Amino acid sequence: MGFSAPSQSQSRPLSPPLSSESVSPARIRSRLLVPFLKCLALCLISILVLVAVLGGSRSKHRVYTGTYRRYQEGGALEVLGYDPGFQLGRAPSLKNVKGCPDGMEDFVPCYDVAASIKAGFKNGQEFQRQCKVQKQCIVKPPKGYRLPPRWPTSQRSLWNSNLKVTEERLESSLNGLCLCRILIEESVISFPSEESLMEGYVQQLEEMISAGGNRTLTEMGIRLALDIGCGMAAFSSTLLSRNVLTMSISAYEEHGAPVQFAQERGLPAMIGSISSMQLPFSLSAYDMIHCKDCGAQWHDKGGLLLFEVNRLLRPGGYFVWTLPFLDQSSNSILKIMGKLTSSICWSQLAHNQRTVIWQKTTKQRCYTSRYKQRSTMCEKKNPADVLLYQPLRPCVTEAPNGRWRTVQQQHLWPNRLMLTARRLSRYGMVRMVSKDFNEDVQSWLAKLSNYWSLFTPVIFSDHPKRPSDDDPPAPKNVVRNIMDMNAQYGGFNAALLTAGKPVWVMNVVPTSAPNTLSAVFDRGLLGVHHDWCEAFPTYPRSYDLLYARSLLSQELQKPKPCTLAVIVLEMDRILRPEGWVLLQDETQVIETARSLLVQIRWEARIIEIPGHGDQRLLVGQKNWRK
């Protein structure tokens, strides 16, 4: 016989034989259940210990999900046990959306000048938005695209590969009328003479407005300006040194895409044409409106365009018109302009060579006394704050009660930024003051530093200790062009400025929210009214950061909502590669948005927000796409 080790049964005494009653089913179940319960308890204790260890090593941000690579493993939404299209009847998806064909790198939906002309639109209407249902595709960057230099370097030099500009195109688009010299050297576009030439022009305007005094535009109460037909945003760039914030607008694809130029430089701009429709800005939005060689026929159609300027201009504000040249015809035009401006209570303030400056009246009774028959006052049935797709009207828009506030009566910047309860009451917001506005101010000041710490790829790390307080902070200029997609009173913008961040913010007041745009402008901030079921009037790759609080759930509650896929795809279009998105909303909506972002290969992570119940913060970063 071979040798074998003794078995376990041989090494211990044998158990006594079982009796017939010891093998009953109840006895067997009891003996089997006890070890099972012990094993289950041991597993639960192990899990609790593991959670405690990992949870204690995490940073203050509690990470809810990881990157798109792990998410693609599938089944996540079904496991969570809810329908991501809960408001829409079906789950929105971007899985089948492909990249746009070559040649669509600068695609802007709602604008097709050639098709509009073919359809019979003319006299400026061909440049207006025509939003129709279009095939969805993901806009890719042009070949050779590079991230713009960080601010303030971008103000003086750009990558030509991002704009595809040639010297011939510049010459034809500018018509030799720009007050600056633009150089194209290899891959760089620069503006070597802009500062000296445009500085002299702005100093001339200051002397004309102050009647020879030695006051700057800011000292005269000017904070917000509108530049029509903005060229290469030289005017906007120069006014920044005076703390004057300028919105530059120009028609789509006209004059060599100047809006694209402005935003590449890190300056406020959007596509807009003052031809047949009102601009999406509120009544009395701007302290100064500027037109230098902008091509507008102000004297035509009984001064129809001037009525729109009058609507946008704050009482006591200034309209600056610099003509391309002076000849016999321009002299006759100026005579017509004199009569038209007088009829809407403007006075000519100064005239120096090619530049004429008018000032809107500071006295509201000028309109009520001059128009006793009120034939040229807009009817009350057309509210002043209804902005989208309103045709130009040959009438004076009357300011609501308490809203007649002149440029000279405004607080000088930066005191204008602090919006008091008394000032809010002018906009019918008395009930909102104590709760909404005070919470808005305080919450933004508290949140901003936490938000800024998220702008690092480390946020998407799977390591349980990342991100942490030891990570290096993001630089101040990590982003420049910012959009608040649901701005309310502009609190996010105000907090950024208070913290000294070198940014500008496009404050969007959506149609799904109460129209608070007048309050945004009253604070000395820029804003626009917009429907997020449509494309925003800007070129692709315009912004570095998109922020929205409660926008997505708000949009889903509209009478005729669009899918979240429409909004997410538009966010992808207007954001630059490596740009950031911060979305705060209800958990279910945030999960849906996260699923859409990862489908188009973004990095995305959800963070719990202490003290905000069902609210979550979605941090997303757009990846490079070829």
TrEMBL record:
Predominant place of localization: membrane
UniProt keyword list: Glycoprotein, Membrane, Methyltransferase, Signal-anchor, Transferase, Transmembrane, Transmembrane helix
UniProt enzyme class: transferase
Entry EC number(s): 2.1.1.-
Any GO CC annotation of this UniProt entry: endomembrane system
Positions of region (Disordered): 1-22
Location in or out of the cell: Endomembrane system; Membrane
Name of a matching Pfam family: Methyltransf_29
GO MF: methyltransferase activity
Highest rank taxon of the organism: Eukaryota
Keyword flag Protein biosynthesis: no
Entry's transmembrane regions: 32-55
Listed InterPro entries: Put_SAM_MeTrfase, SAM-dependent_MTases_sf
Family stated for the protein in its record: Belongs to the methyltransferase superfamily.
Protein name: Methyltransferase
Lineage of source species: Eukaryota, Viridiplantae, Streptophyta, Embryophyta, Tracheophyta
